[in-house]
Amino acid sequence: MILSRRALLVVGAAAALPATARAQASTWYAVRGPDRVFIVDMPGEPTYKVLDDRSPAGTAFTVHSYSLDHGGLAFVAQTAQLPADVDVRQPRAWLQAALDDRAQRLAGRRWTRIDWLDLQGVPVADATGAVADGRVLRQMVLLRGSRTVSLACLGPAAQMRSQTVDRFFSSLRLG
């Protein structure tokens, strides 16, 4: 099974909380990508889908997608093993091209912020940009060899740096 059914609580030991606080505590799920290529915590049980995609040269490949709407926010974690015809020799250039492609769907067709990070020795782009309806998209994308992993959250600007969103992005671990 790709998705772990073992729940994690946001606030630790729920039994120590008053009944009203326990009712408001979110259940978090440790989502494991195929072959455990990544683990990420999501604030509820996501829907898993297998999506078909094609490289620019037309080679078919599979995208594993985990999505969840929670508290006015949309969360997505995706991974794919890119086909051999995708040039991944320069990871940062590939990441920038992926961000440039995604930016075409943003208001003003550009990201308002891109932070370049390192996760376990792997280059990561963490980008934020407004979409046409006033919401904000935050997307983190990385490339490890020919494996890509992407986390995204869409919602109101005021919630993009909330504990829930920060926990989602900071929980990413590579297998």
Protein topology:
Elements: E1 3-9, H1 19-24, E2 27-32, E3 38-42, E4 47-54, E5 60-70, E6 73-81, H2 91-103, E7 113-119, E8 122-130, E9 136-144, E10 147-155, H3 163-170, E11 173-174
Antiparallel strand pairs: 1-2, 2-3, 3-11, 4-5, 5-6, 6-10, 7-8, 8-9, 9-10
Mind explaining what this structure looks like?
With 175 residues, this protein is of the alpha+beta class. The chain has one domain (3-174): Mog1/PsbP, alpha/beta/alpha sandwich (Protein Transport Mog1p, Chain A, 3-Layer(aba) Sandwich), CATH 3.40.1000.10. It has 3 helices and 11 strands, in the order E-H-E-E-E-E-E-H-E-E-E-E-H-E. The protein has a 7-stranded antiparallel beta sheet, with helices on both faces. A hairpin with a 5-residue loop joins strand 8 and strand 9 (136-144).
